[in-house]
Specification:
- The complex is a heterotetramer, with two copies of chain A, one copy of chain B and one copy of chain C.
- Chain A is of the alpha+beta class.
- Chain A has a single domain, classed as Phosphoribosylformylglycinamidine synthase subunit PurS (Mth169, Chain: A).
- In chain A, 29% of the residues lie in helices and 32% in strands.
- In chain B, the strands form five sheets. In chain B, strands 8-10-7-11-9-12-13 form a seven-stranded mixed beta sheet. Chain B has a seven-stranded mixed beta sheet with strand order 23-25-22-26-24-27-28. Chain B has a six-stranded mixed beta sheet with strand order 1-2-3-6-4-5.
- Chain B is globular.
- By secondary structure, chain C is α/β, with parallel strands linked by helices.
- Chain C has six helices and eleven strands.
- In chain C, 67% of the residues are buried.
- Classes of the chains: A alpha+beta, B alpha+beta, C alpha/beta.
- Chains in contact: A-B, A-C, A-D, B-C, B-D, C-D.
- At the A-D interface, β1, α1, β2, α2 and β3 of A face β1, α1, β2, α2 and β3 of D.
- β2 of chain A pairs antiparallel with β2 of chain D, so a sheet runs across the interface.
- Bound molecules: adenosine-5'-diphosphate and magnesium ion.
- The site of magnesium ion has 4 residues of chain B, from loops.
């Protein structure tokens, strides 16, 4: 089944404590060269059928209304996952 | 981590220096957009003898705001300092005016506690708003030199079935839990009230308790010329500045300003580290003065530290570590970024201070030093952008004695008593038969304000630190302070805003009475009070009347009860359109135990099987403003009678009974009266009781309905072991306090039985009681 | 004073050290229950010793210790994943080595991970599986009934196998997951040490509350025995409000194990 | 500054309580047609300098070692974010 990916990131001006903690840990593990880290969310929506424009529009709406909190987050990406890259969900969920 | 004093940013600004301001007296300044009134702006010009610079304007505007300056409330709040006796001051180590009051507990121990509001941020973004509310109050506690040991969260939301309530409820509870749990602070209590009046103005109040050794007490002052001023913790971002860059005069040369955050995001981990790192600083005596950064950020911290000290302060603002390099100097001064502290350190301690920062991996930067010129001078790359007398910023703000008058609707409201509404048929006939009373008890206990709140409290850690001797659902939160002796404290927060609406003077006194009673019922001796005054707009004379009356009532009551107000917070403008919330002066009372193992549980335990159940106090026909009246959508009349002398006596009896082992359970009567109290006592451990209302009905001249649902004050139920009954009766008789033996604890019955009326199996009661919150919130 | 853990109501105020056993208690930034764990050690008769996560000579620090506890809390805020950042602390390498390595076959220093400590042990792959968010997605704090499934570990020998105990549980990411093969292996080898009874509070596979390594010296569990060691401050019990002390057995067990070994 | 994106998803065989809750909420909000939802994480690492092969390799290593837990998660994607899409962190983090 096709998958739509929705990417949500904390707004740039908002503090991201998680990203900050990771950025602090990286150099301790020897990973230098990264100036900052931000942690967001990636959602994979399994589509029941074909990905029509309507379905994609639906996903965009869901991204704005449910998957992100517009006060502190931005939806940075909504796209159909190329088939091969599919990382299918475990199974249908009610 | 190294000291990073060099500014990372490359952005440059048109810096409005003091010199420039003196030369350009006619420059237009956006004082109105910053919330200043014309007279206030003119006062600033008068104080400075010139127009303020952009940075000065930023500082005055935030520090002279209602929130920071208490300009509408000051004239009334004074009563808390004036209506005090010598006795009340005896254990008061630090009173109103510092970050939080400090009360002596003896043996070198002291306790500090304070309650604050985070109402409007919690409506906009409930999770972060409530979370940062906890963060802010905890920093006040740390800045006194104390280890925070507990939090509480008095909450008020809109109607339980309103579509927006779940959003606020889920977010606020999760936010309080997330932040408090991550800090390792047991949540030992709070309040949960649903009322449509709070629909657009939920109240999220937060209380924190801290303990300290006397020698660790720290105050917010900058003293010692040449001592260094340091800012540590999180970096400064654009938080709390508002959507736009309000300081038009500080325009950018090169870059567009980045957006300013609409809400603040808390970083509880950063704050936990701050707590430990501050405690280490205190232990090694590495700071002279310390101040948390909350509202008004660096403006507040620098001006308060400087004006509380004996000299002045000089600060280089480019030294501030930034999260957002596009911040202008004025914005840096106004930023309310969380998890920051400012301290004053002697030059000799600089190295040791830095070692503590390194150990905890906390960022810091040295901003300047304490001077002897009584000025607060702030420079930007060496150019003076602020040169003020710090007192004029921090303490000598505007003061308004706003007009007030009794609301036009008040007479009609008071006349509309519950009984008159029943008589007029506006409220359906009251329950009379046993079956009707039984149904009414179930209805009461499943109503949103009396239903089981474990949906909320299960999301809070109440075990961490290992000192929690009592928490929800008991009458007060109790934490041990001294592990050697068992000495500890109890705290309860209360307010019935329906009472306060009917009569703000009496309502505020009843709020104190209830929290005092809760603490005493737990067995602790009440010692100190903190209050959070949540009201509508002070510019509405009717609200101002409520405010003035409530403070007068609370101050009078504190004096009569002998407990000083040690600090608190005022939250005004809580209204939707022109509709203010009910006046909600939340009162927190703190009491002390010699040994917390003496605390009295609020329910019947199996061990209490067969013990006698006594009702202490007198029941009158007092249903106005009651929970039962709420069930029938009625609000009018006058609140229950206030009798503070009786209240105090009841407290003494409960404390003595607990200390001398005369009682094994005690629960105060408040919302929902005897019906609610008995129900809660059998629900607590699932152990039943058999009671009869006869003696109370005869003695007090009330019917069964009134006996069960009246909310007369100064009452409590206790369970007395058979062997202690004589002593208990002797004690109450000697003090002339009316008690009635209403029944016995009956573990085998598994029910609450009110003889001649009904039998209510505990499981049936529990099912209804526990179902309400999950039904609405999942 | 045996430790320099901070301040106020200090757990380390002298108590009778009954066994002479020294039990290290690790503190990471964001650790919360370190003072509680130390108090539990002391109440059980041992001597708690504070261990700082950044300790660079962990080997030396551990060499004078008889056991180590990685307590609960939100180390590094539980940001990223619970325990994810902490497991890279310098001290963790030393603990893994002292515990007998990741394969868990050679017996070594007794190590107990409680809650966040358990999460750290799984992130460090000293114990199999992992923890994900509670199935109901909320933080949960409650008195939790557990069954001791195996009393042959270093941390459970004072219990009977099959004994039911009640200790507080409090977590956000407490759902224990592992693949079926691993779960079968754990069951088969008796390495499921504690199981939830009555109600599974977080959706953990097979009601698992705690597991051990193959040798039984390393144990991780989600609930908090250190919060049920002192009457008056624990879970409610038959003996009254907050009177439960069932957790003490975990700490007396390890002291007994240590005494047994040195005999 | 260039940004490397790392995407981490729960392994297909691992239950994802958050994804499940979202999948349950979608139809209630009128978003039908999605058979399942999985919630993962998206990290944006701001690179201090150019994105060389070495830096990318470093990011991959960090993704495997720190940003994901192989017991429950897969790293499904590590790539350089095209410049325009940059969603940069607000400022330097030490
Ligand atoms: N309702 C109140 N009752 C008593 N004291 C109050 C009240 N409101 C504010 N205060 C006191 O006024 C002082 C300043 O309050 P506030 O600005 O909230 O402190 P902070 O800056 O530490 O947050 C504090 O000492 C506070 O306790
Ligand atoms: Mg303060």
């Amino acid at each position: 089944m096709p998958t739509i990916v929705v990417d949500v990131m904390p707004k740039p001006e908002i503090l991201d404590p998680q990203g900050k903690a990771i950025a602090g840990a990286l150099p301790r593990l020897g990973f230098t060269g990264f100036a900052a880290v931000r942690q967001g969310k990636r959602f994979e929506l399994t589509v029941d059928g074909e990905v029509t424009d309507e379905v994609l529009a639906h996903a965009r709406e869901a991204a704005e209304q449910l998957l992100s909190n517009p006060v502190i987050e931005d939806v940075v990406n909504v796209e159909v996952l190329p088939d091969a890259a599919g990382h299918p969900a475990e199974g249908p969920t009610a | 981590m190294t000291d990073q004093t060099s500014r990372q940013a490359t952005a440059t600004f048109n810096i409005d220096t003091v010199e420039h301001a003196a030369q350009t007296p006619d420059t237009e300044l956006p004082w109105a957009e910053l919330g200043l009134k014309q007279n206030e702006f003119e006062e600033i010009v008068r104080i400075l003898g010139r127009r303020p610079t952009a940075a000065e304007l930023a500082m005055y505007s935030v520090m002279w705001s209602e929130h920071c300056s208490y300009k509408s409330s000051k004239v009334h709040l004074r009563q808390f300092g004036e209506k005090v006796t010598e006795e009340m001051k005896k254990d008061l180590m630090v009173g109103i005016g510092e970050n939080a009051g400090v009360t002596d507990l003896g043996d070198g121990w002291a306790v500090t506690f304070k309650i604050e509001s985070h109402n409007s941020p919690s409506y906009v973004e409930p999770f972060q708003g409530a979370a940062t509310g906890i963060g802010g109050i905890v920093r006040d506690i740390i800045s006194m030199g104390a280890r925070p040991v507990a939090v509480m969260d008095p909450l008020r939301f809109g109607a339980i079935d309103h579509p927006d309530t779940a959003r606020v409820m889920h977010g606020a509870v999760a936010g309080i839990g997330s932040y408090g749990n991550s800090l390792g602070l047991p949540n030992i209590g709070g309040e949960m009230v649903f009322d449509p009046i709070y629909q657009g103005n939920p109240l999220v109040n937060a209380l924190a308790v801290g303990v300290l050794r006397h020698e660790d007490l720290r105050l917010a002052n900058a003293s010692g010329v040449g001592n260094k001023v340091v800012l540590f913790g999180a970096r400064t971002g654009g938080d709390g500045i508002g959507g736009a860059s309000v300081l038009a005069s500080e325009s950018f040369d090169d870059a567009k300003p980045s957006k300013r955050p609409a809400v603040q995001v808390g970083d509880p981990f950063a704050e936990k580290v701050l707590i430990e790192c501050c405690l280490e600083l205190f232990k090694d005596s590495l700071v002279e003065g310390i101040q948390d950064l909350g509202a008004a950020g660096i403006s507040c911290a620098t001006s308060e530290l400087a004006s509380n000290g004996e000299g002045g302060m000089n600060v280089e603002l480019t030294s501030v570590l930034l999260r957002d390099p596009t911040l202008t100097p004025g914005e840096i001064l106004m930023s309310e970024s969380q998890e920051r502290m400012m301290a004053v350190v002697t030059p000799g301690n600089v190295e040791a201070f830095e070692a503590v920062m390194a150990k905890w991996d906390v960022e810091y930067s040295w901003l300047g030093e304490v001077t002897d010129d009584n000025r607060l001078t702030i420079t930007w790359n060496g150019e003076v952008i602020v040169d003020v007398d710090p007192r004029t910023v921090a303490h000598d703000g505007p003061v308004y004695d706003r007009p007030y008058h009794r609301p036009s609707y008040q007479d009609a409201l008071v006349a509309d008593t519950f009984r008159s509404a029943v008589d007029a048929g506006r409220v359906p006939a009251l329950p009379g038969t046993g079956d009707e009373l039984r149904a009414a008890v179930l209805e009461l206990m499943s109503s949103p304000n009396l239903a089981d709140v474990s949906w909320v409290t299960r999301q809070y850690d109440h075990f961490v630190q290992g000192n929690t001797a009592m928490a929800a659902p008991d009458d007060a939160g109790v934490v041990r302070v001294d592990e050697e002796t068992g000495m500890g404290v109890a705290v309860s927060t209360d307010c019935n805003s329906r009472y306060t609406y009917l009569d703000p003077y009496a309502g505020a006194q009843l709020a104190l009475a209830e929290s005092y009673r809760n603490v005493a019922t737990a067995g602790a001796v009440p010692k100190a009070v903190s209050d959070c005054l949540n009201f509508g707009s002070p510019e509405d004379p009717e609200v101002m009347w409520q405010f003035a009356e409530a403070i007068r009532g609370l101050a009078d009551a504190c004096q009569q009860m002998g407990v000083p107000v040690t600090g608190g917070n005022v939250s005004l403008y809580n209204q939707t359109g022109s509709t203010p919330i009910h006046p909600t002066p939340v009162v927190a009372t703190l009491g002390q135990f010699d040994d917390v193992s003496r605390r009295t549980p609020s329910g019947f335990h199996r061990d209490a099987d067969g013990q006698a159940v006594y009702l202490m106090g007198v029941t009158r026909d007092e249903l106005d403003g009651s929970e039962f009246a709420r069930l029938r959508d009625h609000l009018g009349g006058v609140p229950p009678q206030v009798d503070l002398a009786t209240e105090k006596l009841l407290g003494e009896l409960l404390i003595n009974a607990s200390r001398d082992g005369m009682i094994d359970a005690a629960h105060d009567l408040s919302e929902g009266g005897l019906a609610a109290a008995l129900s809660e006592m059998v629900l607590r451990f699932g152990v039943g009781a058999r009671v009869s209302l006869d003696e109370v009905m005869q003695r007090d001249g009330v019917d069964a309905f009134t006996a069960l649902f009246s909310e007369s004050q100064s009452r409590a139920i206790v369970a007395v072991p058979r062997t202690e009954e004589v002593r208990f009766k002797d004690m109450t008789t000697a003090r002339g306090f009316p008690v009635a033996r209403i029944g016995v604890v009956d573990a085998a019955s598994g029910a609450l039985e009110v003889q001649d009326q009904f039998v209510l199996p505990i499981e049936e009661l529990r099912e209804r009681w526990a179902a309400t919150l999950p039904e609405y919130f999942g | 004073m045996s430790t320099d853990l901070p301040l106020i109501g200090d757990f380390s105020t002298a108590g009778p050290v009954l066994t002479g056993a020294r039990v290290g208690v690790v503190t990471f930034p964001g650790t919360l229950d370190d003072r509680d764990a130390a108090r539990a050690v002391r109440l059980a008769g041992g001597e708690p010793v504070a261990l700082w996560h950044a300790e660079t000579d962990g080997g030396a620090a551990l060499s004078s210790l008889d056991a180590v506890i990685i307590p609960g809390g939100f180390s590094y805020g539980d940001y990223l994943r619970a325990g994810a950042i902490s497991r890279f602390a310098p001290l963790m390498d030393a603990i893994i080595a002292a515990a007998g390595g990741r394969d868990g076959s050679g017996s070594g220093l007794p190590v107990l991970g409680i809650c966040n400590g358990f999460q750290i042990l799984t992130e460090a792959h000293l114990l199999p599986g992992s923890m994900i968010k509670n199935d109901h997605l909320k933080f949960i704090c409650r008195d939790q009934a557990l069954r001791v499934e195996n009393n042959a570990t270093a941390w459970t020998r004072d219990f009977g196998t099959g004994e039911e105990i009640t200790v507080p549980l409090k977590n956000q990411d407490g759902q224990y997951v592992a693949d079926e093969h691993t779960l079968d292996e754990l069951e088969g080898e008796g390495r499921v040490v504690f199981r939830y009874v009555g109600w599974n509070p977080n959706g953990s596979r097979r009601d698992i509350a705690g597991i051990s390594n193959a040798a039984g010296n390393v144990v991780g569990l989600m609930p908090h025995p250190e919060h049920a060691v002192e009457a008056g401050f624990g879970p409610d019990s038959d003996h009254g409000m907050r009177m439960g002390t069932d957790g003490l057995g975990v700490f007396t067990s390890v002291l007994a194990s240590i005494a047994g070994e040195t005999k």
